[in-house]
Amino acid sequence: MSSLLSIWRVALLARKSFSKLVVATLCELGLWLLATHVLSVGVSSVMRVALPDVGILANYWLELMIGFCLAASVFFFVCRWTRRVYLHDVARQVRASILLDAVRPGSRLAGDGSIKAPASVAQRLVSEMLPVVETISTLAASVVACLILAIASPLCGFVTLACVVASTAGIAIVVKLRANDVQLTEHSLTRSLTVLVNDNLRCAGEVEQYGAGPQRNARVIADAAARSRAALSATVTVGIALAVDLAVLLAMAVLLYVRLASDVAAGQMPAFSALLAAAGAATLLIVNYRPRTIMELPVALQAVKRIDAILMADADDVADALDAEAMLSMEVVDGGGVDGGGEGLDSDGSSENASEQVDRASASADPTAFAGVLLHDVCCSIDDGRGLQGIDLAIAPGEFVSVQCDDEAERDVLCALLLRHAEPDRGIIALSGTRLASVSEDELRSTIVPVMRETALFPGSIRQNLRLGKPSAFDDELEGVLRKVGLDFVLELEDGLGTGVDEPAASRLSEDGLMRQRLGLARAILSPAKLIVMNDPTGDLGPIQEAELLRSIVALKGSRSVLFVSRTDRLERLADASYKLDGGRIH
């Protein structure tokens, strides 16, 4: 029942294109019947030539061969192409529907101008939907063709049934083996879908953080428009080709039928030849058509299940996933601040005096110049009662600051405060002498950029993933950054920067945590930001991979301000300043 509901939901999304499916299926059905008819006549003709009573059909071998070749070419070229056009049209309908839901203001799938999971889920849905729709149309044409053959000729129907029974054993074995393969991969496919959705939920944070949401939306919609124009052109071409080929084929069929009708009516076609003709037609239909369709059924059924899982996801599921997977979504509870100490900016350490100093500095600050970051007496509580308690921290321009912290929640909230994903309960956070709360969103995103514990990859090319940090970057600049972070292998790929991150050639990026983190570091380097906030970027790496990534991070020293917050203290000796965050306090 759930499978039928899934197919029905897909059909509703593509209801405007349903007529194309009907036309494609009817054309395929008609051409198959015509092809089997021509084949039957051809087999009869050949057999009559071989028999003693040759008959006048020997004179028609040229027309028969031409007709059969036309029928075969039309089926394998025009019909399958026509159906493909329909399938891609359905794909665009589904993709456009979900994208519009994602971009539309007020939608539960939209947020701050960035496309979250739906764009990727739409692509996944399309890829899962294609085998289902194709199998449905193939089965429809196949079943109806068999029924019409049986109604038109009981003898042909009997031969068709005999061929089906004879081939059942072999087909059953192949289908069982195929089904076993599908079942073995079902777990990995489900896991892949889960990882894909989670990755794209993380992508939402990175798109928003880099301020690239509107640009990405524009690129996605422009890409969809280009695909639609190309598909429209292909549809017109296919329509013309289909009309011409059908006209030629029908003319040939009428010619053959008229010339042979009188001979068949006079009883000049032996029953044995008719039987062989029916057997040939049925064998062509069964052996060359139905087994492929039957073998696709296990894949299609599994795809239907995954489509159902995607389409049944509601707002609560999306919200839960966002809460669980967003990298820096911090819920700051209301209430008073936590008392804490720490050295102030003045000799008396008062927050009031520090506030006055920041206000004076803000009045004369140059918004285009980066003058460092200051945290003074900052308190921030989190939902389990823990939090930061009066911390003081300063990061000067070009300074590399290391903060070691064992508590993941404390690491997250410290980075969240600087990225303005959380608000302090008390204290002052200043960026270049201006209160962080007063800094515009664009200025903040152009000044501070994060490198998180796990880098998210977008569906698309490596070039597109890198340009998230700098949309205007040329290939020479991208290649230079890749060499700097140790991703030289990308330049050796056949398509280079144009390689899709989901292609086998780029599997190292999607499967190797070190390579993903290096890509995230490359994004940060490409961005114009003066401060890079790193939240435990080596947390999911092994010792050797961690050492390799740290080598690339240390190379940034002096060129950018870096706040490296990590559970380890491996960079303590290499940093310009090192601290330990423990119990909510900086030591």
Write structural notes for this entry.
- The chain is an alpha/beta fold.
- It folds into two domains: 1-108 and 117-317, ABC transporter type 1, transmembrane domain (ABC transporter transmembrane region fold), CATH 1.20.1560.10; 373-586, P-loop containing nucleotide triphosphate hydrolases (Rossmann fold, 3-Layer(aba) Sandwich), CATH 3.40.50.300.
- It is 62% helix and 10% strand.
- It has 17 helices and twelve strands.
- It has helices at residues 2-13, 18-50, 61-103, 117-152, 154-209, 213-265, 271-287, 290-311, 315-325, 351-364, 408-418, 441-447, 462-466, 475-485, 507-511, 513-526, 543-554; strands at 110-111, 114-115, 373-381, 387-395, 400-404, 426-431, 434-435, 448-451, 531-535, 561-566, 577-582, 585-586.
- The strands form three sheets. It has a six-stranded mixed β-sheet. A four-stranded antiparallel β-sheet has the order 4-3-6-7, sandwiched between helices. Strands 1-2 form a two-stranded antiparallel ribbon.
- Strand 9, helix 17 and strand 10 (561-566) form a beta-alpha-beta unit.
- Helix 1 (2-13) packs across helix 8 (290-311), helix 2 packs antiparallel against helix 7 and helix 14 crosses helix 16 (513-526).
- It is globular and about 75 Å long.
- The two termini are 61 Å apart.
- The relative contact order is 0.10.
- Keywords: Membrane, Transmembrane, Transmembrane helix.
- It holds the Pfam family ABC_tran.
- It is a multi-pass membrane protein.
- It comes from Parafannyhessea umbonata.
